[in-house]
Amino acid sequence: MQTIIISSPLVSHRLSLALPVPRSPLINYHHGAPPSIRLSSHRFTNSLRLFSSAAAASRDSEMATEDVQDPRIAKIAASIRVIPDFPKPGIMFQDITTLLLDTEAFKDTIALFVDRYKGKDISVVAGVEARGFIFGPPIALAIGAKFVPMRKPKKLPGKVISEEYSLEYGTDKIEMHVGAVEPGERAIIIDDLIATGGTLAAAIRLLERVGVKIVECACVIELPELKGKEKLGETPLFVLVSSA
Amino acid sequence: MADENEVKDPRIDGIKTKIRVVPDFPKKGIMFQDITTLLLDPKAFKDTIDLFVERYRDMNISVVAGIEARGFIFGPSIALAIGAKFVPLRKPKKLPGEIIFEEYELEYGSDRLEMHVEAVDSGDRALVVDDLIATGGTLSAAMNLLRRVGAEVVECACVIELPELKGRERLEGKPLYVLVEYR
């Protein structure tokens, strides 16, 4: 399985939870607001490497010469806020809204995806509701592709096709307009984060059912322990930040 | 909308024709304005964003607030182009941090719009973005959230207006800019 993963073996396991990260000057905090715990700079892998697709195949032998650490990644990782116990105890929620408040980090995030997908004959950027709607359209506009929203049930007004997927308890559905894409088109699927991979896998199935080739799934964040990548089958995954 | 004496920007007609009207959605009698077909046309989508960016780039806007979910499709691209922060205004229980909320009326019952309190403050000049203004209830709630943290709402911007629903009148005198009217 060809996978292009942007993650470093140098995972930091330091758990200095007592020391909140200094607040970014770009974010205005209300005086007296509870401090948000910025675990991200301790927990995220900051030395992320960008592999060329040629290097990916023989990654181990070419690592020393081929890999380049993009300086923008560290700033992006640091701008993501981790909120403990949301939506329920035990979950460390990866909050990208703080990234969106950092104009440089947001711009860099989009640029990293655009640099990768421009000129690759991709005509469809599919974005998963709702946070995929934040990252997908700027990428689509920059690479000259159409943007196709993949939505929860009953939101799209026209004729739809839907795909069911499993949740922890029960199932959900993802929908797309009939006719939005055509057989033979090349697509990328965007979401802010891949966890278990259930939603992305459903999005892949939906597009493949209408004859679209999914070139890659692209997310800002991966939670590798949840092994979402494994649900994507043959489809490669590209992420900027891996939260171990 | 632009003064009717002014020449209409030639890109507007191209945008209007790309919007699909779906009758009787979500229920009978409603002519639903579907912008997903606009998003399938890269040139028309780009023109849409360009028209907003051209208007706002020199207005010193520091925050673009987008209303979930279709405001998320247009707002971030505008924010990126004009160098502003993007702030998502969301349905209840989606935002993980400390929030404030504003209730607004629906035809039956009410709903809530939420914002992270730390995202915006009194130094900010804000633009509120959604795909469409109907009754103006959601936009009015959005404006209230921003006002409550001391931001100045400069304008509301939508792709489409349904003028017969008089949403413009609910914006407490704040200006509204739209590209297309549907009568």
UniProtKB/TrEMBL annotation, chain A:
InterPro entries: Ade_phspho_trans, Adenine_PRTase, PRTase-like, PRTase_dom
Residues of the Phosphoribosyltransferase domain: 113-228
SUPFAM superfamilies for this protein: PRTase-like
Main location (coarse class): cytoplasm
Cellular component, GO annotation: cytosol
Keyword Glycosyltransferase among record annotations: yes
The UniProt record lists the keyword Transcription regulation: no
Family annotation (Pfam families): Pribosyltran
Keywords of this entry: Cytoplasm, Glycosyltransferase, Purine salvage, Transferase
Molecular function, one GO term: adenine phosphoribosyltransferase activity
Subcellular location, record wording: Cytoplasm
Pathway: Purine metabolism; AMP biosynthesis via salvage pathway; AMP from adenine: step 1/1
Subunit structure of this chain's protein: Homodimer.
Entry protein name: adenine phosphoribosyltransferase
Organism: Capsella rubella
From TrEMBL, chain B:
EC supergroup of this enzyme: transferase
Gene Ontology biological process terms in this record: adenine salvage; AMP salvage; purine ribonucleoside salvage
Keyword line: Cytoplasm, Glycosyltransferase, Purine salvage, Transferase
Location within or outside the cell: Cytoplasm
Pfam families according to UniProt: Pribosyltran
Enzyme Commission code(s) on record: 2.4.2.7
Known partners and oligomeric status: Homodimer.
Family: Belongs to the purine/pyrimidine phosphoribosyltransferase family.
HAMAP family: Aden_phosphoribosyltr (MF_00004)
This protein's name: adenine phosphoribosyltransferase
Source organism per UniProt: Capsella rubella
The organism's taxonomic lineage, starting at the top: Eukaryota, Viridiplantae, Streptophyta, Embryophyta, Tracheophyta
